[in-house]
Sequence to fold (224 residues):
Amino acid sequence: MGSNSSKAGIIIGVLIALGLGLFGGYMIGNMNANKTEEQSASTASTEQTDLRVGLNNLLREHVTSSLVVTRNIVDGASIDKIEGSKAAQTANAVAIATAVGGIYGQEAQDAITTPFVEHIAQSNNYAQAVANGDMAAQDSSLAALRAELRKVATVFNSVIPSLSADTLYEALSAHEDLLNQAAVEYKAGNFTKAYELENEALVQISGGADALSGGIIESKPDMF
Fold:
């Protein structure tokens, strides 16, 4: 695998630097030219596992950070508390875009950053509309949210052709629907139902992370 394995090590290192702690700071070193095929296969398997775990951590953090923002908004928390939770949410979005850029380059990173950050802004607008009981604002923010999700799906499809833009968009929309409905139930005081929806969103996003990692591995066999 040679230099390609070193590239994979750099990608894993990026994820570790983002605070994911993949396998206690594991990085792929330079491979000895006379390694056996069995050792090489084992290394590839580890790289693929690290990618899957890294994406799961990033996307699950996306869900949990978004839920904190939503609860703060609906609960009428202080501006400082809301803005602090939004900052953590945005940092995670940038981390996801950075991870994409570490694999597909700066152009892909730039392309994913804006719509990904904007989609969480619209998700937060939806939560604010729920808090205010403003149905018109909910509809408006939802339309804007779906437009940004379409852009995110298009970018991922451009670098992972095996995952269709329509399928990605439907999965992203289903994910947002769970979070939006959780916000509605939370506002209504139906906390058990809200928490059920939140847990469902976490399970769903893990499945999405697995699908993305599989598509990445297929599109970048030289790295993984």
Residues 1-41 have pLDDT under 50 and may be disordered. Helices lie at 3-20, 37-74, 79-104, 106-132, 135-159, 165-188, 191-219.
